[in-house]
Amino acid sequence: MSLLLPQSGDIPLPQPGPISEPYWQGCREGVLRFQRCLDCSAPTHTPALMCAVCASRSLVWVDSSGKGEIYSWTRVWRPVTPDFVTPYVPVIVAMEEGWFILSNLVGCEDDAVAIGLGVEVVFHSSGGADDIVLPYFQLVS
Q1: What's the distance, CA 127 to chain centroid?
Q2: How many whole angstroms separate alpha carbon 90 and alpha carbon 10?
Q3: What is the pLDDT of residues 58-99, one digit of tens each?
Q4: Which pTM value belongs to this model?
Q5: What is the 3-state secondary structure (H, E, C) of the chain?
Q6: Are 94 and 108 in contact (CB under 8 A)?
Q7: How many CB atoms lie within 10 A of CB 134?
């Protein structure tokens, strides 16, 4: 068993752009954001210019509760790059608002994960020059 911690060091980091900047600004503020279509109400996590459901351009940024449950997970022992500390546990989280996010589980032992467990977002700074703040998830106690 290993305690799951946020990644540190020279891990690959996202490159925020004009479309995703509100998302990353929210992470810096400790708020998880997603987009919602004003025409059909569909939620989306991947920052977009138009709704994937109805093709409307009427997307707005909405603050999430930051709570959800584990929809799927895996335990990684052989990372894509040696910059990642193993083990780590990527999780797909079904958020309360009806959208999904891929992140990592932290703050528990690597064998404590199971589908359906409640989780909540926690934010950790990458500590790099760009100081990207990444959303991770921890089990709800």
Answers
A1: 17
A2: 18
A3: 999 999 999 999 999 999 999 988 999 999 999 999 999 999
A4: 0.94
A5: CCECCCCCCCCCCCCCCCCCHHHHHHHHHCCCEEEEECCCCCEECCCCCCCCCCCCCCEEEEECCCEEEEEEECCECCCCCCCCCCCEEEEEEEECCCCEEEEEECCCECCCCCCCCEEEEEEEECCCCCCCEEEEEEECC
A6: no
A7: 18
